[in-house]
Amino acid sequence: MWAKLAYAIVVGLVGAGIVHIAVLFLLPTVTERDAWTRLANTAGLYVITPADGSDKSQPVVNAPDPLFRAVACRFNLEDGPVRLKAEGKVPFWSASIYDRSGQNIYSFNDRTATEGKLDFVVATPTEMIEMRKDLPAELASAIFVDADVGEGIVVIRSFAPDDSWNSIISTYLKSITCQTQ
To answer: Whose CA, among 7, 97, 130, 139, lies 20 to 30 Å from 113?
Structure first.
């Protein structure tokens, strides 16, 4: 009986060791698949990057609906608040803010914005208080997002009802700026 128990323990330990070694070998592959890393390999901070694979790169965000186009921008709030702004109008846009690990912090769309214009500022709670003390006139109609994160990603999606909208949506997404304040 003791021999069977010892055999089971040895087999269990060997099996656990094999699984542990396999996980260690797979770890570099799995960690390179997160959105932050894929964006970092494509562009620097504050650079608007196609995120839906429309530029023939690997999609950063899942886009199950082919009628949506998406761009992304990585930011670091240690550099100060970040402002995203676009020129023009499209039938629909939505913005989602994620922390570095991919957790959604805040989402909104054109129905939330003044006149449907994409213009918002992401800031830490402390930065938000300071900005509101002496709000610049150019930020009067901007949406303010209070995000208690260091680094993050903003993903902007826009709806293209049919192929005739592709050039308008593309121009709109290319007009988006992502910069520190």
So the answer is: 130
Residue ranges of E strands in the chain: 49-50, 68-76, 82-85, 93-99, 104-109, 119-123, 143-146, 151-159, 177-180
Extract the tokens encoding 126.
Answer: 């402390």
- Closest among 36, 155, 159, 158 to 97, alpha carbons compared: 155
- Per the listing, tokens 């049919």 go with 162
Contacts of 131 (CB under 8 A, 6+ apart): 81, 121, 123, 139, 144, 181
Tell me the torsion sign for CA atoms 54, 57, 63, 69: negative
Query: Would you report the helix, strand and coil content of the chain in percent, each value rounded to 5?
Result: 40, 30, 35
pTM as predicted: 0.78
Is 144 in contact with 76 (CB distance < 8 Å)? no
Q: What tens digit of pLDDT does each residue of 73-131 get?
A: 999 999 999 999 999 989 999 999 999 888 999 999 999 888 889 999 999 999 999 98
Query: Angle 172-103-170 (CA atoms, 0-180°, nearest 5)?
Result: 10
Report the alpha-carbon distance of residue 82 to residue 177 in Å, rounded: 10
Q: Cα(103)–Cα(123) distance, rounded to whole angstroms? A: 17
Q: Output the DSSP codes for 30-67.
A: HHTTSHHHHHHHH--TT--EE-SSTTSS--SS---STT
